[in-house]
């Protein structure tokens, strides 16, 4: 990206992978699912959630991680022609390993 | 699973057992129940809930545990043809022992 | 029970007593009551509510205690032909002594 | 009471006094009041509200205290033919002295 | 008062002053106001709000203080023919000095 | 003011400035704005918000400060013929310097 | 600005950039996006969020930072003919670097 984003707080910037890539990896989202999660790649992570002590709890993800996240959470934005999503760490369901 | 999931926070990945297996184990869900819980096997656990101290409280379950959980909680996803569920620890009602 | 339940967090498993047993013990639930509590016997208790310190506050009940609880709280389930209820400690109104 | 109740947490068991008794004590509830409080006598008190430290804050009432409480709070139950109410300490407005 | 009230927690018992008295003191409530506050005299104060440390924060008012409070907050009650109000300290807007 | 107000908690008493004064100071409120803030002068401040430690965090404003605040927050009251507003510190958007 | 604003708490004053400037920087907001974020320049920052310890956590932004923020959050105001926005730090999604 020519323009890069540095998320605040416990936010994570994710580049979504499309459905074909997801099927290839063995993950299929059933039509009957209440909320279909999406798969994506982490492109930026914030400094983490602020604790009452004034310290921050680091986000448990690093750039490059593949993650599952809820389809309807977060904010979509297009950067340099690529659609990305800005989510809170708590909207990330799991890391794919 | 060829693709494995590492849940975040206090999330747990559960592989649901079908109704026949549940009846065999002596547990029957009455039709009149407000919310019918499901039985499943834990396949992955997250690092646990974040405390204000910055530490995490480990999830009180290990891979292989059989659990009861609410039918409508969590997120369904299909991995390698098997339908699984990603739940928070607080959505797990009890361990079956 | 052939199958036994080990509740998580501050949950309690209760085996409800039927109306006749309640009347015998001197407790009658008025028809005009907004929410009719039920009487039951505790059959399993969880490790207790998680405190911010990371410790748990033990549930103030032991197996065998008779309790009053709200009729509409918790989750009903049938184990080995017996209908039981899984409740949080905070849904238990009082111990009968 | 042949059957006695030991309330959990910060709950209080109150035996309501009827309207005549209330008038005698000089307290009249206006018809225009949004919520008419009731007068009653405390018959049992719980161990008190759980603090994050794991200790409990003792209930600021003792058995025998006369109290004012909201009419619509708590749970009604009949014990040995006497109608009582199980309330949280926070539903008690004031002690009558 | 022949019957006196000792409020619990951070509650305050207030004896409302009527509209004429309020005008005399230079305070007029505009008809257009969203919520018209009332003026009253404090007749009793509780021990104060419970902190997580188990201590209480004393109510910042003493008996005899004149206060402004929201018209629709708290509970009305008639004691010895005088209408009073039981409010939480947080429902008191300001002390009149 | 002949009658003066001493606000409780983190409340602030503000004397609103009218629209003409606001325009003079270079601040214009667009008609399209979702919520039009108002400009006013602080005439009294409370002791500040209560912290769990039992101490109070002093209000970050002093008498005489000019502030912007939401039009629909707080409570309006007329004192000695002057309309004022009682707001919480958190309803104050910014100090004008 | 002839009139300058000093925001309270964790508030941030942002001067929005218009759509053309945003496209130039490589960021395009898709029409299908649920909530279109806006790009702007930080012109003032508050002292930061109050922690229970009584200290404040400094805002993770400085004057001059370019940020993305939700279109519908915060309060719009016109200062010296320029439309600005007053937002909480938690309404800022990311810093553009």
From TrEMBL, chains A, B, C, D, E, F, G:
Identify the InterPro entries for this entry: Chaperonin_GroES, Chaperonin_GroES_sf, Chaprnonin_Cpn10_CS, GroES-like_sf
The answer to whether the entry has keyword Magnesium is: no
Q: Does the keyword Cytoplasm apply?
A: yes
Q: Name one GO molecular function term.
A: ATP binding
Mainly resides where? cytoplasm
Locations listed in the record: Cytoplasm
* A cellular component term, taken from the record's GO annotations: cytoplasm
**Pfam families per the record?**
Cpn10
SUPFAM superfamilies cross-referenced by the UniProt entry: GroES-like
Keywords (alphabetical) are:
Chaperone, Cytoplasm
What the entry lists under NCBIfam families is as follows:
PRK00364.2-2, PRK00364.2-4, PRK00364.2-5
> How is the subunit organization of this protein annotated in UniProt?
Heptamer of 7 subunits arranged in a ring. Interacts with the chaperonin GroEL.
Give the function comment from the record: Together with the chaperonin GroEL, plays an essential role in assisting protein folding. The GroEL-GroES system forms a nano-cage that allows encapsulation of the non-native substrate proteins and provides a physical environment optimized to promote and accelerate protein folding. GroES binds to the apical surface of the GroEL ring, thereby capping the opening of the GroEL channel.
Q: Which family does it belong to?
A: Belongs to the GroES chaperonin family.
Q: Know the name of this protein? A: Co-chaperonin GroES
Species = Caulifigura coniformis
